[in-house]
Design a protein that fits this description.
Blueprint lengths: L9 E5 L18 H13 L4 E4 L8 H11 L4 E6 L6 H14 L4 E5 L5 H4 L8 H20 L4 E4 L4 E5 L12 E3 L4 H10 L2 E4 L4 H17 L5 E10 L3 H20 L20 H12 L2 E2 L3 E2 L1 H5 L8 E4 L1 H13 L4 E5 L3 H30 L3
Parallel strand pairs: 1-2, 1-13, 2-3, 3-4, 4-7, 7-8, 8-9, 9-12, 9-13
Antiparallel strand pairs: 5-6, 10-11, 11-12
Helix pairs in contact: 1-12, 2-3, 3-5, 5-6, 6-7, 11-12
């Protein structure tokens, strides 16, 4: 069960480098600064705390996009996905610290090990996934030392070796939040050792609670604490029937595109028909779809079924109150951060920020008030 303060909440969105939405192939220019600007500003206006800037071996560089966002937004935080390997951790630490100072403390980094061995080979990484997680943990260890050391230091690790490493710039708060994903025992243990936030995909109450408990336990073993973030697609309606009608229409759209040959919305360029989803998180998505179309209170697995488990496509469907009820249950299981995606992130951000998040906060406040009223004098 969660011991987080009732006020502890972070709402995260996503900014993609081009147009397109959940259930669509990318559209428009291959890199669209105007789309990036509009998407960031719409989510800032909707009250999101932070946005994810995704990254992979062939995607535009997330640090550059983060620098751009820092100049066009006022209070929106940004979490840049970053894969250890292409650059040294000492350089990454200075680069991130510089971005954090330019944005007055709004930067965070999501360290990713890479979901698929073939995908990371495009950047020359031929390590096993287990090796990539160990590399990532040492990478974070070096970055934290760069951010905190008052004088040049030497480092001799399993993968990295430095002499007189030092930085003349530090993050505004002395460090910045480090997010981390992965469902294996190794990934969870290393998250507990080096990260601040464990990021997991959408799941059932039982599945999400199990992973959250493992992340909290891993941190405790290392004498630390972590927060837990979960990604969900959100489909809202004025009524329950309207919300499920949206879900049905989205499923028809996705399956129709796939039947028409738009395979790019399901698989990456390196995937082959019949391949099993490589990441453990994606295998969990596929397993959800096999349990049934509707799980728990309002969890819909239709997109996981259509996408064959690839991507974080678990969906909460319902009215703002119904979806908030489910998010509150996840909070009780130790999850206090939510990355909320939608079929049209720009258009839906205002509704999520204006209807769902206030309902969630109202339920949090009511729970806190009840707890205070029931506390002994």
């Amino acid at each position: 069960m969660s011991t987080a303060p009732e006020s502890d909440l972070e709402i995260v969105g996503i900014v993609n480098h081009r147009g397109g939405a959940v259930g669509e192939a990318p559209r428009g220019p291959d890199f669209d600064p105007e789309h990036i600007r509009r998407s960031a500003l719409s989510q800032e206006a909707a009250g999101y705390d932070r946005v994810l800037i995704a990254n992979a071996a062939t995607m535009p560089e997330s640090f550059a996009t983060g620098a751009y966002l820092s100049g066009i937004t006022q209070k929106l935080g940004f979490m840049m996905a970053h894969r250890p390997g292409p650059v040294m951790p000492t350089y990454a630490a200075r680069h991130l610290a510089t971005l954090d100072r330019l944005s007055q403390g709004r930067a965070a980094v999501h360290v990713i090990a890479g979901a698929d061995d073939r995908e990371v080979q495009a950047d020359g990484a031929f390590n096993t996934k287990e090796e990539r997680y160990r590399i990532a943990a040492e990478y974070v260890e070096v970055m934290r030392k760069v951010w905190s050391s008052p004088e040049p230091f030497d480092f001799d690790g399993e993968f990295y070796r430095f002499r007189d490493a030092f930085a003349m710039v530090r993050p505004e708060g002395g460090a910045m939040p480090v997010y981390w994903g992965g469902t294996s025992d190794l990934a969870l243990d290393l998250c507990g050792k080096v990260a601040d936030v464990y990021a997991q995909g959408g799941d059932t109450f039982a599945g999400a609670g199990e992973l959250a408990a493992k992340a909290h336990a891993a941190a405790a073993r290392h004498g630390r604490e972590v927060k837990v973030l979960m990604t969900m697609v959100i489909l809202l309606g004025e009524t329950e029937d309207e919300a499920w009608a949206r879900a049905g229409a989205l499923y028809d759209k996705v399956t129709g595109q796939i039947a028409g040959g738009a395979q790019g919305i399901v698989m990456g360029k390196h995937d082959k028909q019949g391949d099993k989803a490589a990441a453990g998180a994606f295998q969990r998505m596929q397993a959800q779809a096999e349990q049934g179309d509707r799980l728990d209170r309002c969890l819909w697995t239709g997109l996981n079924k259509a996408y064959q488990g690839r991507g974080n496509n678990s969906v909460l469907v319902g009215t703002p109150q119904q979806v908030a009820d489910s998010l509150m249950e996840y909070r009780r299981l130790g999850i206090t951060r939510f990355l909320l995606r939608s079929p049209d992130q720009d258009a839906d951000a205002a509704r999520i920020g204006g209807e769902l998040v206030p309902e969630l906060k109202a339920q949090m406040a009511a729970l806190a008030s009840a707890a205070t009223a029931g506390a002994p004098a």
